[in-house]
């Protein structure tokens, strides 16, 4: 969203030397970029957006003239915003010098404006402050909506009426989930388009910017050994796992209205699934990749209640420390039934994947933090070494693990003879461990990436269709309550059979 020098945006190569003053070719005026992080008091802004903006600044990817404004309802002075932001900035990317100085320089460009999300007056005041910083240059404005989706339209309306650029571009980055279901997603698009053109809207899914997710198609399409195995003929099941070892921690204002299915499954995990399972695209163009992803998603039957198990984390004590339950969070309404965990089995009805379960698990406050893709291969037919494994044939199957985070790695579990006398087999890993290969993972991708990593409307629709039975009810809690009771006994949940024999 920040790219494009022509329009007074960024240099194409990011380095201090290459940072240039963008000058408009017709007016000869210098230009500036003003970035407003709407929802700046929140979790996403603190954890990801400000650190990513700092990483861009550090690497010389922001133009010479830029200003960053935080905007939210919480009252905060500029200095308080800077203190808040400074706690999350790191120089972990590399050990280059002057990191502390760079942080200072970055923080000096950060300001805060408190306002309501539906107040044109408050946005008009923001506009006044932005103009002071833009100092008569051509102004390009980016609004990053780091807020719950139900207030996107209010913000876009106020920003476009009272704070859009009069002489440069105005762009908006919107976060997932894009709506609550197909209908609200379509309504959201319609409403946003009252104020913005399609090319001003950037729908972001930051999982698409994760290094190992980007690497998925490289792994498949540029290595001869994987693609021929990539089908029902050799693959027994595929697991897509998202697990966090911390709870919602003050994010109830957003999370409680959406739940884990909308927060993680409908977007991050279905995006990964589509990339994993799509046919070879005609080219690497965003359009061609998107077409293949849409085809896969449209070949999937919508999830039925029998295909999913849900849950909510409770309080527990470990090592003498008591961790709160989801409903103990002050920002979560008392008695909330919003799911914080879900496990689902999905199927793709096409020639390549017919009958292969794609098992998704997503949860908060679980015992580990990880995001992984695990590909479990079938048994070797008539395995000569069956006896070497005893009766535990499951141990003899190959598994490819793509560990998206933390400690990024790709490893393949293969069977191996244990050295020594006799013929005993064991599984070993062929391991591409990123840290060991000194491959560092940059932070700034989500803000820096081009259109290939942003989302198009039809992908949204296809993904909401798959989740339709789970999110269609006007009151999702009702659906979830019924289903929760239904799944209380393990034997009631047909889908659980797909998880049998699957490592946790
Ligand atoms: P938060 O709950 O932290 O909300 C962000 C800010 O929005 C809050 O600080 C609050 O600011 C305001 N807000 C919260 N709830 C409401 C409400 N009900 N009505 C009006 N304003 C509200 O959420 P996150 O920052 O975690 O998420 C924001 C968006 O970012 C979501 O769409 C989420 O899907 C997406 N996202 C989050 C990620 C993360 O790691 N957290 C990662 C990727 C995407 P104030 O009260 O000061 O106005
Ligand atoms: C966001 C969700 O999209 O992704 C959060 O809204 C979640 O609930 C976050 O914590 C996880 O992102 P990451 O990059 O930290 O795995």
Automatic annotation (TrEMBL):
It catalyses: D-glucose 6-phosphate + NADP(+) = 6-phospho-D-glucono-1,5-lactone + NADPH + H(+). Pathway: Carbohydrate degradation; pentose phosphate pathway; D-ribulose 5-phosphate from D-glucose 6-phosphate (oxidative stage): step 1/3. GO terms for biological process: glucose metabolic process; pentose-phosphate shunt, oxidative branch. One of its GO terms (molecular function) is glucose-6-phosphate dehydrogenase activity. Residues 218-478 form the Glucose-6-phosphate dehydrogenase C-terminal domain. Residues 37-215 form the Glucose-6-phosphate dehydrogenase NAD-binding domain. GO terms for cellular component: chloroplast stroma. The keyword NADP applies. Keywords: Carbohydrate metabolism, Glucose metabolism, NADP, Oxidoreductase. Coiled coil: none annotated. Its EC number is 1.1.1.49. Belongs to the glucose-6-phosphate dehydrogenase family. Catalyzes the rate-limiting step of the oxidative pentose-phosphate pathway, which represents a route for the dissimilation of carbohydrates besides glycolysis. This is Glucose-6-phosphate 1-dehydrogenase.
